[in-house]
Amino acid sequence: MKTFPDTFLWGGAVAANQVEGAWREEGKGLSTSDLQPQGIFGPVVDRVAGSKSLKDVAIDFYHRYPDDIKLFAEMGFSCLRVSIAWTRIFPNGDEQQPNEAGLAFYDRLFDELAAHNITPLVTLSHYEMPWGLVKQYGGWGNRRVIGFFEHYARTVFTRYQKKVRLWLTFNEINMSLHAPMTGVGLPETSSKSEIYQAIHHQLVASAMAVEICHDINPDARIGNMLLGGLVYPLSCKPDDVFEALQENRKWQFFGDVQCRGAYPGYMLRFFRENDIQLDITDADRQILESTVDFISFSYYMSGCVTADETLNQQMRGNILSMVPNPHLQSSEWGWQIDPVGLRTLLNLLWDRYQKPLFIVENGLGAKDIPDATGVVQDDYRISYLNDHLVQVREAIEDGVKVMGYTSWGPIDLVSASKAELSKRYGFIYVDRDDNGEGSLARSRKKSFYWYQEVIATNGASLKG
Ligand code: BG6
């Protein structure tokens, strides 16, 4: 019988700014996320003027994490992906001394996970950075930010060396091309040169983190995190096929640098032809040679491209402009559902890099309506997740080394793209709406019991 490896990690993934709330508690500083109440593509808003953001309270995980972790443990999680809010540790980003209250919070969180035998997988920066570093230094455009990040990374690697063994550097690092404020702290109006220079600094910082992590704890494993933006050619016209290859390289470029330790030739050509002159030092090149131990990625949907530019602009998903695939259905948010794409992506990444893979985000955002008894009967979510997991199992049969699977938002949380609560991913329902109304009470959806069984049987209960 096809099965998952015994060591396979099962669980869910959240990000600090989408669950924690407590945005000004215990010395936390302002982050880019705090200043983007409309989501990662939204404008930067002056919060001092009194504007509200759903993320200020989010789902109040900061105070409710013990109960939430209990529910994750009830589902049988062996892994939880969380992120550290950089601003809880260094409120402005450039301090020498960390904020002890912030460090203590994550100590408590990791202890709680350990008490339930749940392995933490920790992202250093998930769609947020200290606003102080943007305002005073110009975000990742400034080389000095590498040093501030290095100090932050060293601080948390040291503090949590006995509690955390699995780390990720930057969430969806390729996202900076589409949401530069969120990714690298640069205004949307930035030029391509400015964005790629900031990305270069971030790639150097990521490689530095790999080295520091290994120095501090040789048993730790650290990965990158890519938005797996798998793209197909709309037709078999050679021009469309090449267009798809180019489009895939837009995200593979990040993986190529982080896994192979150098800029690929196709990128050097792109820089040349677009008059992008980057400041890349010999020291940078040497640092980039510290490559990640494993590759993590998110996967929600696939897309198509054609060499026909007008058609290319017709559909917009989370971040990519893509042409609809006539063979696929879409979610309520227009994301095209493609379980086989996950098998393709796993094989593609394995063939390209030969490094272990970790699926750290996958899931269906939907408008859940509790039934008369108050339970969400989310068969649509069950079917989405089942079909994707079946393909993960197929990829493992293909010989791909997969470390684990953490579904996105195992508990409802504030969505990233539009900062909504009505777009729900959870196995656990949270009573809070887009206006911030609701008791914040948690309840189990139908999918809660389904996932519990999947984990208990190590995938044997999957259908298909
Ligand atoms: C990924 C992010 O892009 O997709 C998450 O890493 C995000 O932070 C997730 O929440 C789903 O996107 P959205 O916009 O539906 O929340």
Automatic annotation (TrEMBL):
PROSITE patterns per the UniProt record, alphabetical: GLYCOSYL_HYDROL_F1_1 (PS00572), GLYCOSYL_HYDROL_F1_2 (PS00653)
Gene3D superfamilies linked: Glycosidases
Keywords for the protein's UniProt record, in alphabetical order: Glycosidase, Hydrolase
EC number(s) recorded for this UniProt protein: 3.2.1.86
Active site annotation, chain numbering: 361 (nucleophile)
Assigned GO CC terms: cytosol
Keyword Signal: no
Family membership: Belongs to the glycosyl hydrolase 1 family.
Superkingdom of origin organism: Bacteria
Pfam families per UniProt: Glyco_hydro_1
Record's protein name: 6-phospho-beta-glucosidase
Alphabetical list of SUPFAM superfamilies matching this protein: (Trans)glycosidases (SSF51445)
Single biological process term from Gene Ontology: carbohydrate catabolic process
MF annotations from Gene Ontology: 6-phospho-beta-glucosidase activity
